[in-house]
């Protein structure tokens, strides 16, 4: 566990700076941009992330499993060709979106998808090469740089366009920093591309719908809130989750980027690997508990003080979402476990249950009592769902110690 600990600490140090900058700049950004502008930006960002998360058909996540540098090179080329196709599809969707609403800001969509897809590919390449210091720096450039550029754009009066363009530029800068050591090649023989695509077909067939539907949850949530209660309410939702999920992004991203190669190297589920996952869950739960209690006690007053009285409702929402944030904090880095253990089909089925519960609870809460009720409903539903998920991982069957496969959810 010592190499895993060192890698986690390195990534966490970079992540701390990466998250600190957006958090520190948040009070300035909420005074430069209105809740309605934030609401439209979060809707755009959710759609872009939804498409970007599958822009390489998830083949980039097979890079840590590549048997040698030649296979990694072919995978990299395959990902870049798929990314170009995803950008073309995004351009068509952006045009339809812009014509439908009579605005031109959706035309940024293919640039956002391309930048985020390229960054995901560069990140997984660096993970394979175990360049953890470079990964830490890239997180600072992406998250911290994006917030800093948004502040500059807001000071210059760029409005919604500044909110959208700044993170795209930051993602491109972070991708450039992570330029892989592996020699890049576009002209890989088609037979090699097809062979590698077949060998890792579980990623597009199983992990792609899993990732897409997971991101779709956020897109549908923002769209529901914007349609039901207006762009300002979507802005409250977006700001709350941006701050509340910051600890999970910091800790979860660092732990998962170190945990995935370690579990992949073990060659599948084993008693030692399962024990490592249990330790990770216990530590994360201890960290999450004071976060939940703190939100219950001071969230509305803290949000009003930090962002202005106009954002107090976001603090009320933060209090309602506290339980959900706590269990999400623990679950965030664990998504790589089922990839490393070859259980993506099981994870996909379980995630469909969770996403249905999330959207159903959100819609029911909005219908019954508005945004605040939706937060409490989401917290209750997600506690049940993640509790089941944690128990399944903690009791995962190990060859020689249990059944060959886990029961269906």
Structural key phrases:
409 residues; mainly alpha
Please render the helix and strand layout as text.
Elements lengths: L1 H31 L2 H18 L16 H33 L7 H20 L3 H24 L4 H18 L12 H10 L2 H28 L1 H14 L1 H20 L5 H37 L4 H9 L1 H10 L3 H6 L3 H51 L15
Outline the structure in words.
The structure is a single chain. With 409 residues, the chain is an all-alpha fold. The chain has 2 domains: 1-200, no CATH class; 229-401, no CATH class. Helices cover 80% and strands 0% of the residues. It is built from 15 helices and no strands. The protein has helices at residues 2-32, 35-52, 69-101, 109-128, 132-155, 160-177, 190-199, 202-229, 231-244, 246-265, 271-307, 312-320, 322-331, 335-340, 344-394. It is globular, with a radius of gyration of 21 Å. The two termini are 30 Å apart.
Radius of gyration: 21 Å
Largest sheet: none
Strand fraction equals under 5%
Total number of distinct structural domains: 2
Series of secondary-structure elements, N-terminal to C-terminal:
HHHHHHHHHHHHHHH
Short structural summary:
Helices cover 80% and strands 0% of the residues. The protein has helices at residues 2-32, 35-52, 69-101, 109-128, 132-155, 160-177, 190-199, 202-229, 231-244, 246-265, 271-307, 312-320, 322-331, 335-340, 344-394. The two termini are 30 Å apart.
């Amino acid at each position: 566990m010592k190499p895993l600990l060192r890698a986690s600490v390195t990534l966490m140090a970079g992540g701390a700076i990466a998250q600190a900058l957006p958090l520190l700049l948040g009070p300035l950004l909420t005074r430069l941009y209105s809740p309605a502008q934030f609401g439209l930006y979060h809707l755009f960002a959710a759609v872009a992330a939804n498409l970007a998360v599958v822009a390489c058909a998830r083949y980039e996540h097979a890079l840590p499993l590549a048997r040698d540098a030649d296979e990694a090179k072919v995978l990299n080329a395959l990902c870049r060709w798929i990314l170009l196709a995803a950008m073309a599809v995004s351009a068509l969707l952006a045009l339809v979106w812009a014509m439908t609403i009579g605005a031109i800001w959706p035309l940024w969509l293919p640039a956002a998808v391309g930048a985020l897809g390229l960054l995901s590919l560069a990140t997984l390449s660096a993970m394979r090469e175990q360049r953890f210091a470079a990964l830490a720096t890239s997180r600072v450039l992406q998250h911290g740089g994006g917030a800093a550029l948004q502040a500059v754009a807001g000071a210059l009066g760029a409005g919604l366009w500044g909110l959208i363009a700044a993170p795209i530029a930051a993602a491109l800068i972070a991708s450039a920093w992570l330029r892989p050591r592996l020699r890049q090649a576009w002209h890989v023989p088609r037979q090699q591309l097809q062979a590698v695509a077949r060998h890792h077909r579980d990623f597009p067939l199983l992990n792609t719908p899993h990732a897409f539907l997971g991101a779709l949850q956020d897109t549908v949530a923002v769209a529901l809130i914007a349609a039901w209660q207006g762009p300002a309410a979507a802005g409250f939702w977006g700001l709350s989750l941006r701050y509340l999920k910051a600890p999970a992004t910091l800790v979860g991203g660092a732990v998962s980027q170190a945990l995935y190669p370690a579990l992949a190297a073990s060659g599948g589920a084993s008693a030692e690997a399962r024990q490592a996952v249990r330790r990770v869950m216990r530590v994360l739960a201890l960290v999450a508990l004071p976060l939940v209690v703190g939100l219950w006690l001071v969230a509305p007053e803290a949000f009003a003080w930090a962002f202005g009285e106009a954002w107090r409702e976001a603090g009320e929402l933060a209090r309602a979402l506290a339980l959900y944030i706590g269990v999400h904090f623990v679950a965030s880095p664990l998504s790589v476990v089922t990839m490393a253990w070859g259980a993506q089909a099981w994870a996909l089925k379980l995630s469909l249950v969770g996403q249905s519960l999330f959207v159903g609870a959100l819609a029911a809460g909005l219908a019954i009592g508005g945004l605040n009720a939706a937060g409490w409903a989401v917290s209750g539903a997600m506690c049940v769902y993640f509790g089941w998920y944690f128990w399944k991982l903690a009791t995962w069957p190990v060859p020689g110690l249990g059944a060959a496969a886990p029961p269906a959810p």
